[in-house]
User: Fold these one by one.
Assistant:
Number 1:
Amino acid sequence: MFSIFSALKKLFVGEAPALPIPRQNRQADAQVRYRQDALAFAKKQHQSLSKKQREHDDWQRRYGRQQAAELSKLSGTEFEEYLAGLFQQQGYLVELTPTSGDYGADLLLTKEGQRIAVQAKCYTGSVGVAAVQEALSGMAYYQCQSAWVITTGNYTNNAVELARQSKVRLLDSNELGKLIMQIESKKGD
């Protein structure tokens, strides 16, 4: 009886009696806190990994440009021979086409039944639509399933658009650097 009066007194005096929190509410609150903590952890991990990925991508771009700068010192024929060796190390069967009258393909790559016509451009500047057109011509002439253009430079917007529309793969100095890095890391293993 005394406890009822003291509880009523606390209610009217301003002190609310401490009511026990139902067990279900405590479990729900714990689940909410767990989810919030897990979400905060995931966001922090995502930010950290995104930063590391950006740093790695920046490093690859610098590496690609550095490798491309070295490769751009080669003659066109030397560049084609270098690419032949690079793709052989990647497991491709490589065929070099004649240095003149090649119908738009400098290299023919074959791997897993897929044949690829490659137009190689050892440039320091931008490669235009003509290279994409040559690769398409080589693809048709040599009966390939796809065509690539590989350069030590970069591509004009028109070349990129034509390649996108005709499904020609463009490899620039960054992509070339990544490819070289993959091969070098395999050698280290």
Number 2:
Amino acid sequence: MSIRKNKQWLLSLTLGIVLAISISCSTSSTPAAPTTATGLTVAVTTSGTGGSYAPRNVVAIWIEDNAGKFIKTLTVYAAARDYDLTNWNTASGGNKVDAVTGATQSNVGIIYGAWNGKDAAGAIVPDGTYKVCMELTDKGSTGNFSTFAFTKGTTAATITPANVPSFSSISIKWVPLL
């Protein structure tokens, strides 16, 4: 091969690699829906708060008991800015044991969570009233925070709360543990 053809081949290869890296870095992976047959599943469509980082955002979903005691984190997407999730940090102390975690979201969209009825230590919690807590921010401070009560018990139930700032199309489904 001539030097000119080698340079063209090398340039083509380099451009292909740069393009592949660019696409993989700019594409936000969509969180997968939970595949749990029993326990709690949560699905919610997120929207921004109009902050300076928008559309990039950090978000957390966790469980508290009816008295507000932290039980377990389900989902946290906030690798670099989890400190801006002030409600989640206050409740959980940053506990991510067995949670689905990932990088700061590059856009708003559907977020999922799943709970097997256990606390962060792995113990099954008693039946009763619990809260799904959600927090999202796209600014360098506290964003929107909401809670939704549900009953963990022997009866299946699905609730679809009204839309609130940053959270819409909310589905919270409990299927009794086997």
